[in-house]
Amino acid sequence: MRYITLITFALLGLSNASKSALFEQYHTQRQTAGFRNFTEINQQPVIGVISQSLETEMKGDSRFQGYGSYVMQAYVDWVEAAGARVVPLIRGEDPEVTKRKLKGLNGVLMPGGDGDYHDYGRLVLDIVKEMNDNGTYLPIWGTCAGQHELLSYVSSAGWDVLDVYDMDSASLTIEFPYGDPSNFAMFAGMGPDAWLLTEYNVTYNSHHWSLDPYKFQIDRGLMAFFKPTSISRMPDGRKFVASMETTGLNAYYPFYGTQFHPEKAANIFNPTQAVNHQWESVLLNGYFADFFVQECRKNPQRYGNYSETQKDIIQNHKLIVSTEWFDNVYVFEGSSAYRLMVSVGLAMAAFAMLI
């Protein structure tokens, strides 16, 4: 966990007396936050990151030939910086392989991107929900498209619950209209520093879809499973859900989501993306990795011994360095079904050219 109260002191320009008072307040809040009762069951967490289908830009790059899905390196680096290792959950792999992995993993990350993993993500969610129902504490974190998938899985309207919120690239503030952030599991550990997110543009957004907060008042599926914990605004003032966590009778599921990308600040340096790289931004965004991995440390499962885990970690797969928006990515061969589909598609295209 990164202790960043000094950032608050520096940015607010407080007197020594005020700093002392704020520190006492911060200390009290941390003692009452979820971290106080945290029991570290697992000191070597392993997290599964879901792969998604190739982006359009990848299909025209010969380096991606023969591969069917990918994971951005930024997500891997993000959780590894918080003390976890990564095993890929590969779209198209045998469901029994995925189930075997999940029985050893300590958490799941559903990433952002423009690729597809809708059906595979639902399979993963169903397995993880069942494991939690049976007493295994197994967290899920969804970022951007990952949050969209989680919303669509539980919404009464399915994917149609989402609306178009086109935002190419921007770092924004968030707002807490639903109460003090210390009352939400995903923000409680930040203490007063959570309020810095309302003052400084440190949450990076790039999305086509998002969720109108009003949907939580009219969609029975949504309101029964998730609650919004913060919002952001489009340039035209429209509100969208910036973060969420489970609620009510489903609060025992440790599932969280953000529309923004906390993995970008420390890992993405493409000048075409408006990522805030200030030290404060890096630390504040890093908090969310710390929180998620700390949640994963509550899970008792063991993926295997060191040698067994090393065989499955994501570094066994090819890394392609890119200057495209997705940056560096790990790639995975398509399943036999996927390869057959591609072969049939190519054959049909060749036949069409002959007639």
Automatic annotation (TrEMBL):
Leading EC class: hydrolase
Active site annotation, chain numbering: 144, 261
Gene Ontology cellular-component terms listed: extracellular region; vacuole
Subcellular location per the Swiss-Prot or TrEMBL entry: Secreted, Extracellular space
GO molecular function: gamma-glutamyl-peptidase activity
Entry keywords, A to Z: Hydrolase, Secreted, Signal
Domain of life: Eukaryota
Keyword Ion transport applies: no
Protein name listed in UniProt: folate gamma-glutamyl hydrolase
